[in-house]
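pasting for ref. prot 1 ->
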Amino acid sequence: MSAPFVELTGVAKRFGGVVAVRHADLALYPGEVHALLGENGAGKSTLVNVLAGTHRPDAGTVTVDGVEVTIPDPRASRALGISVVHQHPVTFPDLSVAENIMFAGFAPRRRTRFLDWSAVRRHAREALARLDVDLDTSTEVKHLSAADQQLLEIAKALDPDTRLLVLDEPTAALSTREVERLMKIIARLKADGVAILFVGHRLNEVFALADRVTVSRDGSTVVTGPAKEFTPESAVGHMVGRSVETVFPKVDVELGPVGLEVRGLGRRRAYADVSFAVRRGEILGLAGLVGAGRTEIARGLFGLEPADTGEILLDGAPVSIRSPQQAMRHGIAYVPEDRHTEGVVLDHSVGFNLPLALLERRPRFGLLSPQADRALAGDFIDRLRIRTSGPDQLLGALSGGNQQKVVLAKWLATDPSVLILDDPTKGIDVGAKAEVHQLVSGMAERGLTIVLISNELEELLAVSDRVITFYRGVQGPEFDRRPFDAERVLAAMTGQVSDAHV
C-alpha cells in the first residue's frame, strides 16, 4: 500500500469544558474509501471540521504527503487538495446551479471587473461533468430534488486538484436509487486515485463502499482495519459497546381500545382513500419509498396539510383537524422528518426549546416563567438522559441524537394521546437510535397510540406491531404477523404485492 495522503495522529479537541475528541488516529490513502463510524458525540464531525480547516486541534498532528501541516481555515484546506461536503447542504436556493458553484470559489471577471458569465457557466458544466451529472446550470437550486442538491454540493467541493474528498452523511436525504447513483460516482472518484473519507450511519451503505473502517467511541479511536474484517454486528459492538440485539428493542404491550382511526382519508396529488385504525399501546408502521405519501398523511393528521376527503376519529369520536393548534388540542403530537427546520430552534437553549409546544396553554396575558421552564427542562433532561451541560446549553451544540431527544421531550411535555413520528432516527447513530426506540417503546407501554414512519426498513419492522405499505399515494398490503417478511414488505412498497393482508 502507498503512503497515506492525509494522516491524523493523536488529535484532541476541547470546546470549553467539553472534550469532543480525546485521541484520534486516522490514515487516508489514495484510491481508497475509508469509512468513519461512531455514535453521535464520538467526535466524527469534529475530525471532519479539523480536515476542513474549521477547527484547529488542541493536540496531535496532521500530515499531508508526510509533511506536518496546520490548516487554519477552509481556504487552506482546499489549497492542500482537501474538499469537504458537510452533512447539511449550504446552498442559495434562489440562485442558479452555476451561481452556487461560482460562490464555492470560482468568480471569473473580465478586465472591466464584471463577471464573465460564459466562463461561470462553462466552469459549472465542467464541475458537473467530473461527476457525470447532467443538471441544467440555469436551474434555480430550490427546484432541484434533495438528491440533486446533494450532488451539487459534491460538485461545489470537488475540483481537478482534489486529492481527498470528505463526505459527511451524504446519503441522509437520498432514496435507495439515488444512493446507488452516488455510489457509482464514489467508485469513479476512487478509480481516479482520490482518497475518500465517508462518514455514515447506514451500515449497509458503509460496507458496500468501504475498503477500510475506523470506529470512534467517546472521542477516541477504538479500532481500525480492512472492511472485510468487520461485520455490521461487530461494528455496532465497537461503536456502542454492546450487542446489536439491543439496538432495536421490541416490548410486548397489552393493547387497549382504538385510539386513532382514519376513514377514506385523501389529499389531492398526495394520497387517496387511506383507512386504518391504531389501538392504544400499538405502534403502527407506515412503510413506503420516498414519495409514497407517508409524510403527507402524517402532516394531514397534524393539520399541517389537511386532508381534502375522509374523516379522522379519536377514541371513536369524529374530529375536525384543520390546523396544528386543533391537532394539539385533541392530544396529537407530531415529530417532523426535518428536526432542524421544523422541530427545534438550534440557536436557542435546551430550556427555551422544551416548553415551546406548551405556549398555547399559557394564560393569554400571562408571563413566561423562566424558573418553571428550567424545572421542566431539567426534569426531561433527567428522564430522557439527554447529554447536555444543562438547560442553558445551546441546542445546536448537542449531538443529533440528543437534539432528537429534545424534540421528543418537547412533545411529551404536552402529555399527548397520539404520537406521530416521521423518521425519528434520521441522521443519528445506532446507539442513539437504540435510546430513541427505547423511549418510543416506553411511550407505547404507557398507552400512547403511535404512528411510525421510517426510511430504514430494518428498524421499522423491528419496532412496529403492524405495518401498512404505501406505493405512490395508494395504500397497499398490511402486514400483521411478526416477525415480518422484509422481502415481501419491500415488494409491497414497490407495488409488486397486492394481497390485502399478509
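and prot 2 ->
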Amino acid sequence: MRDFVTCFSENAVNVSHSSISCSSYSNNACISPSNVAPSTQNSVSSVYKVILSTLKQILVTVTWCRSHSNQGLAITFNHEDPPPFRLNTNSRFFRKKKGTKILEPFSSDSSKVEILWDLSNAKYESGPEPVQGFHLVIIIDSEIGLVLGDTAEETVLLSKKLNFRSTGLAAAKVSLLSRTEHCSGSTLYSTKAQFCDTGTWHDVMIRCSVEKENEGLFKSPVLCVCIDKKTVIRVKRLQWNFRGNQTLFVDGLLVDLLWDVHDWFFTPSSSSSSSSGYAVFMFRTRSGMDSRLWLEEKNAQKDKDRVEFSLLIYACKTA
C-alpha cells in the first residue's frame, strides 16, 4: 500500500525532525553563497487569536518595524476597538522603553485593554523584533491575553498584581494565526518558522541564483527553498516559472508553499528604479483531507477549532 505522502501528491516533500525524505533533492545540502549578504528584515507582523474565558475572541496584531531613522512597535485589534497602540523613536513612550498604557474602548460592549512593556534591556539580531531581554504583556478584560518575551519575572509580578491565584482566573487561550515578514536587499532570505503550537522551530532559507544548464551552454535563474539546511524545492528557469506551488509535509502537517517572483523579472513601470519589486512567498498549513489549496469559506467554517498558520514573506530585491 502506498503511504499517505505518496497518495496525496507525487511531488510532495516530507520534512521530519531529523531529515528530509521523499524528494530527489533530499541528499543535497543547502549551501548559502558566501559572497551574498542576506536580505534585511524591515518589519514583522504577527496575528494572534485570543479566546477569553467568556469565549470572546479577539484578533491582536503585533508589528515590529525598523528603518535607518526609525524603530517602532504597533499593536492593533480587530475592528479597531479598542484603539491601536503605537510606539516609535519619536514618541516619549518608546524613549522610556518601559511602561504601561490603558486603552479605553470606544463603546461599552468592547474590551478594556492594558499594555505593559519593557524594552530597556532588549537584544536584537538582524531584524526589528527583539529576541531576548524584553517582555510585552497585553491584558484584556482583566485576563492575561498575550505574553511575549523571556522576562518571566514580570509575568509573575503581574499575576500577583491582578490577584489571579486567589480568583482562579486562567489566562486566555492564544494561537498564532499568521506571520508576515517584509525584507529588502539580495535574493537570499532566511528566517525561522514554527508551523504549529506543538511543533519544532525550523530554519527556512530562500535563495535565487543563476546556474548553468546543459553543460554550461547557457545560464538561467534557479529558486531554491531549504528547510533545516536541506533543499526541498528547486525551480529551474525561474523567469518562465515565476509563479507556482509545491506541497510539503512538516511535522505531520500539510504545508503549501506558493511563490510569485514575477516582479523580480518584470518590474512594474510604477516602481522605483532602485527596486525590482516584491516577490511573495507563502507557507500555509491545511488539513490533509482538503483536496484544494483554497476552500470556499462555508467549507472552511466547518472545523472552527482547527487552527491554521501562514507565513507570508515579501522580498524586495534592491541589490
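The chain has two domains: 4-38+186-317, 46-177.
Helices lie at 4-8, 92-96, 152-161, 164-167, 262-265, 297-300.
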